[in-house]
Amino acid sequence: MKAEALVEKGTGCEYMFTHNRLEELGLMYKIFKRDQQTLTLIIKKMIPYIEMRGEKIVKDEAYLTDPIEYTKKLLELKAEMDKMLDESFKNDMKFQKGRDTSFQNFMN
What we know:
Elements: H1 2-8, H2 13-18, H3 22-32, H4 36-58, H5 61-64, H6 67-89, H7 93-107
């Protein structure tokens, strides 16, 4: 499937998430939203990306000893993900649910 190849490519979703390529993610969303199956491919890449970013914060010893900095970092991550959902994915409910699931997973 061509959509899967685009998502998995070295310059695919993970690259776009890591390098904050919101415009490119938006273009991919615009193309993929025609087929709900392909949107799932992006979400399946987004969830582990958010979890990985969140786990770095919750497992960082420096943040665990400084609750204010810990909270600040989590709120910054949330704001960054909210911006991505807004600008790239037009606040699509499927992406919101994926974001929320990710946060629940690394917070628990």
